[in-house]
Amino acid sequence: MYELDKNLIPLFSSNEIHARVKELGSEISEKYRHTHPLIIGVLNGSFIFLADLIRSISIDCDLDFIKVKSYKKTKSTGKVQLVMENSLPIKGKDVILVEDIIDTGLTIKFIRQKLLKSSPKSFSIASFLSKKGTHNLDFPIDFIGFEIPHKFVVGYGLDFEGKMRNLNGLYYMKND
Ligand code: IMP
Question: 65 CA to middle of ligand 1, Å?
């Protein structure tokens, strides 16, 4: 199995990830305790993080998805394409956008701009990972699981050419 692949260097174990995701869930539940947020997951990468995160959230929330595409192998193409629209109304809602990783920041900028046009009451971003020194955004990432070095990572929903999403832990690839 991949976990034994010599080219994969462990970064965070499944236990470490679950402990951190629980903390994020508590923070979100506390901040949104007086409301009923709409959580929008960015497919595909965020699906495992999102599944764990919502089970760590103790308040009612609605759930929706949006799907975009921007990566070829390990590099951003620099162009973000919308593949699937979100479907629930956003107007007047407290929206939390859930992403797997912020690298160049292009994807999150693109989705944020698109969703803000629908006039949510508030808008925040929760990302499982953020790469250090790769983006310079003029808006905050409100909830971040881990800051990581500028390396290509796989596992816990994140893929390399569609593979390795099913690893429980997070790994970086030796040859990147
Ligand atoms: P950005 O637009 O450069 O911020 O990239 C965001 C998207 O690229 C993420 O949602 C991921 O799908 C993908 N991505 C960026 N870095 C990695 C990585 O290290 N591993 C796997 N996917 C990545």
Answer: 17
